[in-house]
Hints:
The protein is 48% helix and 22% strand. It is an alpha+beta fold.
Amino acid sequence: MRTGLVVLILALIALAFFNPSMDDFRLFARQQSEQLIRSQAGDGVLGEAIGTIGGRLAGDNIDRITERRSFVIFSTYTIDFDGPDRTENEWRFIGIAGMFFETHRPEMIR
Length: 110
């Protein structure tokens, strides 16, 4: 019983320690944006350049339209493309243990 409790407490401490920050999400958004742009622009030299520039711009400015809510052991990230009054164009992620998982993708990005 005690061993299980100790393991649970250590796991919670580890999750809290590795809870991704907004800087982590900014880097993740940059990488995801580069991949998305390259998939649309093609794999050639031009697609590579556009993907790199677009990814950098997206990553550097993502915090302007992203809300982060920290729950100590994980965080949620909501990218709101159409303002706070509408929810149709929100892209949502969960960040836990240093990784990000998409939970909702808006129609405009599919």
